[in-house]
Specification:
Largest sheet: 8 strands, mixed
Order of helices and strands: EHEHEHEEHEHHHEHHEH
Strand content: 15-25%
Distance between the termini: 36 Å
Shape: globular
CATH class: Alpha Beta
Number of helices: 10
CATH superfamily: Spore Coat Polysaccharide Biosynthesis Protein SpsA, Chain A
CATH topology: Spore Coat Polysaccharide Biosynthesis Protein SpsA, Chain A
Structural class: alpha/beta
Length: about 260
């Protein structure tokens, strides 16, 4: 076993249970699963414990106390709690296609981080989802020609951005990307100065690029299916995070990441 799937969650036990269900049917089971929990209530711990009793792979529940929306901090917790040399990142509201782990493991490469795609499930379909439908793979039937074309556009965009040497591309979906642990350590993981909504994935992508890594696109092949839920319309913190991202762009290593290199 050389791969860790790191899944973030916060107080969405139904979504988490459905997302976890998809990992029972993976074509490649040589991984551990780390649930990185941003301070959820006891129902989440019950979901994880019940799943652990059924899973044919190790399941780790890493929890921190909730201090507002701090996705970068909970992702770093997941990285520190993992025990392997390769990390696959996803969210606790995303169901993996059955070959999700297999593609991340077989298409990874030295000097690369891997980018996958996602499809947003409609509200009505999301509300009707059951473990039985996930076992049957019914959710993959929600893919349409229009959505497939959009995935191809993003894949081609990633290719041309790489060819042009653009550092703040290719586009990254935090719910579906992977990287070597040694590369995560080299850039010091996620920047926890990005508190609130947005830019933590763009930031680590750009620091990877300045570090010399290439983004390898699997936007059309490696997919997760996002279960609908309401979001905070205010997107608290987004303006400050955007300003911080552009102000610090060009560095490779953050100070407030996996290792704390400045007084907090």
């Amino acid at each position: 076993m050389d791969t860790s799937v790191i899944m973030t969650t916060y107080n969405k036990p139904r979504h988490l249970a459905l997302a976890l269900e998809g990992y029972l049917y993976q074509t490649d089971l040589a991984f551990e699963l780390v649930v990185a929990d941003d301070g959820s209530g006891p129902e989440t711990a019950e979901v994880v414990a019940a799943f652990r009793s059924r899973a044919p792979f190790p399941v780790i529940h890493a929890r921190r106390e909730h201090q507002g929306f701090r996705r970068a901090a909970v992702l770093n917790l997941g990285i520190r709690s993992s025990t392997t040399g390769y990390c696959v990142f996803t969210d606790g509201d995303c169901i993996p296609a059955k070959d999700f782990v297999e593609i991340h493991r077989t298409r990874r490469g030295c000097g690369c981080f891997l980018l996958g795609g996602y499809l947003r499930l409609a509200r009505e379909y999301s509300e009707s989802l059951t473990p039985e439908l996930i076992a049957a793979g019914d959710f993959v039937r929600q893919m349409t020609r229009k959505r497939r074309i959009e995935l191809w556009r993003r894949h081609l965009g990633a290719f041309f951005a790489q060819a042009a040497g653009v550092k703040d591309r290719p586009r990254i979906a935090g719910a579906n990307f992977s990287a070597w642990r040694c590369d995560l350590d080299a850039v010091n993981g996620y920047d926890e100065n990005l508190a609130g909504w947005g830019r933590e994935d763009s930031d680590i992508r750009t620091r990877f690029r300045y570090f010399g890594l290439r983004g390898r696109s699997a936007w059309t092949r490696c997919l997760v299916y996002h279960i609908h839920h309401e979001v905070d319309p205010s997107k608290a913190g987004v303006r400050a995070n955007i300003d911080y991202y552009y102000r610090t762009r060009g560095r490779t290593r953050c100070d407030n990441g996996l290792v704390k290199e400045q007084p907090q």
